[in-house]
Amino acid sequence: MHGGQYQVAVTKQHHHSYSLTDSSEVDPDDEKADSPPPLTPLQKLTTDMCKDEKTIKDLIIGRRVGFYKVRGEIGCGTFSRVKLAFHALTKDKVALKVLDKTRLDSQAQRLLSKEISSMECLQHPNVVCLYEVMEKPSRLYLVLEYAGGGDLHNRLSTQGKLSENACKITFAQILSAIKYMHNINVIHRDLKAENVLFTSSGCIKVADFGFSTQVSNRNDALDTFCGSPPYAAPELFRDECYLGASVDVWAMGVLLFFMVTGTMPFRAETMGKLRRCVIECEYTLPPWVPGPCQRLIRGILKEAPADRYAVDQMLGCDWLLPVQFPWTLVPPEPASPLQGLLDSERRDLEEEVEEEVRGLLEELGFTAEHLQNNQTKNSRSPVTGVYRILLHRAQKKRGCDSPPVIRGMVRDPKREGLRAYKGLRHTSKLCVLS
Ligand code: ADE
Fold first, then answer.
1. Which has more pLDDT, 403 or 23?
2. For 29, 232, 365, 411, which has the most beta carbons within 10 A of its beta carbon?
3. Residues 315 and 227 in one domain
4. 97 assigned binding-site residue
């Protein structure tokens, strides 16, 4: 699923004439019908959006956007705010990222285009899913999968370092997401604890693709400094061109250190001192960190990008050996004798899911014509939004969204000591190297 480049454009807003392209819309004023059939939920909603005073007022004041009812703020960034919202038909919770177009300079617009096109081609259980994109005259809205368990930075700040098993489960999921992204040449460029979210079931979702980019070749060098300084690789501080995958790998090393110890590997009072620490790769691993984990961190946090572990080396390391992924995360190699069987099982499952979604869409009032007129790959369509939300719900119901487990693990060990990391969230920056 590859998305095209996104253009920010000003369009006219029409609250009073909301319709989807289907000739079977019911006109409730049609006097010829003796006893018109009851309105479907979709017909009721689109009618309310055109005629109901309260709904129209909510649309005008921003308490509703498209098919979504908007609630309170759950996050904010440099150019955006994230709000909790509900789909008016499916009732599912979503995260609504709201961007003020009037505040976006040309560079921010370019980054936004990349964020959308990266997210449009990503579909992985550990990556926040983009359901829909909506555009109004001054605002742009990204409708995202909601991850209700908070972010990793908050968790480490409030509960201290994670237990070793929790670290393995969390890190394995981040690794799975990054392996998938790098395989399709998407580089995140802003991996940090603040951008690692938990769902309420403990699944990890890598979020915020605002600095991401898709390279045409994994050996393409990049030259834009992106991200947060404490997570930035030495080559970024040296103002060199860099390979995207290697800077994501470095940031994963910083993340792992943070999860395991509750402290950041590179800390300094000034940017100059931080730069020196990172460039000299100067960090101290506490001796109590288990040997296999120490070896993994040391394999990642190497000054020279070429010496750093590759993602596959990380996945194959001793420390992660007891992690059992659900089969959806790491499918076997294509040549594996199991592949044929799994392919047919997966096809059956996909067909079952598709059928369930089609049934639910029909119950809501979406017709075959709606689906035909609104390609489900077009993120700008409200039909796509509903389709993707229902598809995701059906996949989750079948366990596609469950975290990996540790072989032989009975329960989580007691959580350990707190570290003073409250209020020290890391802000991300961008500058083009000259
Ligand atoms: N904050 C930012 N993005 C979010 C998301 N997708 N879910 C929950 N909270 C968020």
1. 403
2. 232
3. yes
4. yes
